[in-house]
């Protein structure tokens, strides 16, 4: 075998100019200009050591171990396209802006590569790492990075609000190996007006006026044709004996909507919180000029729209729709948040907690999981709040000892709970009614 130095590729490389090592530190002004010229509407920079990114750092470094700087990119959307009750128009705007922003990120990464600076650009939204579903499927959490980079602050609707463009933006993040000579800092105020229009417009009550956010309600409806909702639809297809039974479970418009999402990209069902938000210097004018007209033109059409609302049975969202939007049609679905392990079960409880079901509760549960996943946990449900602690703390109102595999089967409706008790795989010390109360607080 010839020596490496005799290989044509090596000889061609050596015949060219000497390899240029990446710069020790990149000029921030140069990089900002590059990003804006290539199509970003705004951009900020965060060093990997920033304290605000402590929880994100392991995930960032797992995706690109050479990361030293995070570039937060902003691309604004056309506001009226998002505001219209015609969701097809809104979804086209989401998808086109998504595509545009990813093209911008790719061009920036290519320009950096030409300077021998390594970088990667994870997706704005999808595709994501579905082998990890239903856990953390995203590579990078764009929102906390955008906040750290001075691109805005989080509103009560959990969208980042840019000081100029409002929440009518999409975000992307580039992971870059080089450092900068200077970095961005968060803005020193929150553009959120706390007007609560997002609270009023949300069809499932996911946004509380006190700042509470019901994750499962939002995901179950708005993302109905993504992930969990798609799984629910597939299971309805599989469980149907024939076309007649399928049509009893799924309406023709729902079948057509799922086909549309599969053919053209998955469609959001609402995003009304974003549609009605008046925050941002470029956005706030009509709201300040005449709030009554703003409500009539922007908020009321979304509230008054007759449409299906997807909820899990017995959830806070179901009760909210019945009370607040009786003209909208409730459709029962499974949210798709399966629990493949005890760790995932415990980690997912805050996401599916139905606090309105816990208004009158003050109960402490001791869980002892045996078998494959041994673990002890204390769960306290007290007056619309949830606490989860490792170990058995305090005095329990209900003690639950259960084989871990059996518990996961119970959650997945594969194991009858009464049979599990008779077989001593599930043991209770305390009132069984408290287990019923526990179940009601986590409607799935």
From TrEMBL:
Residues 183-212 form the 4Fe-4S ferredoxin-type domain. SUPFAM superfamilies: alpha-helical ferredoxin, SCP-like. One of its GO terms (molecular function) is metal ion binding. InterPro entries: 4Fe4S_Fe-S-bd, 4Fe4S_Fe_S_CS, SCP2_sterol-bd_dom, SCP2_sterol-bd_dom_sf. Keywords: Iron, Iron-sulfur, Metal-binding. The keyword Transmembrane helix does not apply. PANTHER family: IRON-SULFUR CLUSTER-BINDING PROTEIN (PTHR42827:SF1), IRON-SULFUR CLUSTER-BINDING PROTEIN-RELATED (PTHR42827). This is 4Fe-4S ferredoxin.
């Amino acid at each position: 075998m010839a020596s490496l130095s005799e290989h044509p590729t090596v000889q061609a490389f050596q015949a060219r100019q000497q390899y240029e090592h990446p710069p020790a530190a990149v000029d921030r002004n140069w990089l900002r200009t590059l990003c804006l010229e290539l199509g970003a509407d705004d951009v900020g920079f965060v060093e990997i050591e920033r304290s605000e990114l402590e929880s994100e750092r392991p995930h960032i470094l797992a995706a690109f171990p050479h990361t030293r700087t995070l570039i937060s990119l902003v691309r604004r959307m056309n506001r009226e396209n998002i505001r219209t009750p015609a969701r097809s128009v809104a979804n086209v705007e989401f998808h086109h802006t998504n595509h545009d922003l990813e093209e911008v990120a790719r061009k920036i990464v290519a320009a950096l590569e030409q300077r021998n600076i390594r970088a990667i650009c994870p997706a704005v939204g999808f595709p994501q790492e579905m082998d990890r579903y239903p856990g953390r499927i995203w590579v990078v959490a764009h929102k906390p990075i955008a906040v750290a980079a001075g691109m805005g602050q989080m509103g009560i609707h959990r969208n980042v609000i840019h000081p100029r463009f409002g929440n009518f933006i999409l975000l992307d993040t580039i992971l870059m190996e080089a450092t900068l000579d200077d970095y961005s800092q968060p803005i020193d105020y929150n553009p959120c007006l706390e007007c609560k229009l997002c609270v009023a417009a949300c069809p499932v009550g996911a946004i509380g006026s006190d700042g509470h956010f019901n994750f499962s309600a939002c995901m179950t409806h708005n993302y109905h044709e993504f992930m969990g909702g798609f799984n629910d639809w597939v299971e309805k297809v599989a469980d149907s004996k024939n076309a007649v039974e399928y049509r009893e479970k799924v309406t023709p418009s729902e079948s057509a909507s799922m086909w549309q999402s599969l053919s053209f990209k998955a469609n959001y069902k609402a995003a009304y919180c974003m549609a009605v938000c008046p925050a941002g210097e470029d956005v706030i004018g009509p709201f300040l000029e005449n709030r009554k007209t703003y409500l009539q033109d922007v908020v009321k059409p979304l509230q008054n729209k007759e449409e299906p609302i997807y909820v899990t049975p017995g959830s806070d969202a179901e009760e909210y729709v019945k009370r607040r939007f009786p003209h909208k049609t409730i459709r029962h679905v499974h949210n798709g948040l399966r629990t493949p392990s005890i760790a995932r079960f415990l980690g997912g409880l805050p996401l599916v907690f139905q606090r309105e079901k816990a208004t009158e509760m003050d109960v402490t549960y001791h869980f002892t999981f045996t078998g494959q996943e041994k673990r002890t946990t204390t769960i306290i449900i007290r007056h619309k709040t949830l606490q989860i602690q490792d170990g058995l703390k305090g005095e329990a109102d209900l003690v639950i000892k259960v084989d871990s595999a059996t518990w996961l089967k119970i959650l997945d409706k594969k194991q009858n709970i009464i049979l599990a008790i008779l077989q001593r795989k599930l043991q209770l010390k305390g009132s069984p009614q408290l287990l019923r109360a526990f179940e009601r607080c986590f409607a799935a």
